[in-house]
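Retry 2 of 3 after timeout on previous attempt. Resubmitting structure tokens to design endpoint.
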């Protein structure tokens, strides 16, 4: 006679991020010394403002010309003109919830309907307790005209768009990610 098993608990993403997904050069979307390179740094916090110390952020972005070296680029994959640019980064959070990525500003992206997406980074957040990754975008504050025309940013309630804008910092930009609460970052269902 076969034994019936009850409902099994859902498997979450963690706590193995710091064990199995550590990647020493992961934060370097471009090599140090790349012309125009800057740091994006931020903290991941929970709904109470407590730093999330066992999370990971992955970034995906176009090169400065707005192209991807990937077969899904509708214009065709193309090697980036910028030496060492890989378009992908990964950073685990430290003991204070900080992550960091060394990158360059991506170019604007054409939309199939003729519009344009503003320069942005796609970010995925992984962490203990999350059943699936959380996906958000980082937009640049010095791209006001492009941001105003961006169809994705335009689809977000005006009072929440600020959660998708990075802030200038001395060596680049700061972009904190709030998983819950009053200042919760906008996340997209993809």
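Retry 2 succeeded. Sequence:
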């Amino acid at each position: 006679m076969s034994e019936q098993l009850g409902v099994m608990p859902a498997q979450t993403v963690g706590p193995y991020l710091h064990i199995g997904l550590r990647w020493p050069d992961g934060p370097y979307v471009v090599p140090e010394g790349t012309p125009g390179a800057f740091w994006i740094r931020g903290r991941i916090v929970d709904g109470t403002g407590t730093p999330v110390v066992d999370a990971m952020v992955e970034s995906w972005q176009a090169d400065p010309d707005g192209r991807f070296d990937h077969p899904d680029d509708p214009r065709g994959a193309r090697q980036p003109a910028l030496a060492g640019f890989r378009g992908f980064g990964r950073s685990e959070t430290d003991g204070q919830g900080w992550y960091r990525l060394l990158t360059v500003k991506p170019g604007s992206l054409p939309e199939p309907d003729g519009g344009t997406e503003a320069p942005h980074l796609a970010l995925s957040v992984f962490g203990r307790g999350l059943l699936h990754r959380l996906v958000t975008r980082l937009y640049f504050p010095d791209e006001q005209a492009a941001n105003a025309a961006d169809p994705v940013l335009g689809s977000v309630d005006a009072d929440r768009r600020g959660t998708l804008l990075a802030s200038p910092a001395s060596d680049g930009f700061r972009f904190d990610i709030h998983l819950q609460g009053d200042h919760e970052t906008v996340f997209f269902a993809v």
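Attempt log closed. The radius of gyration is 18 Å.
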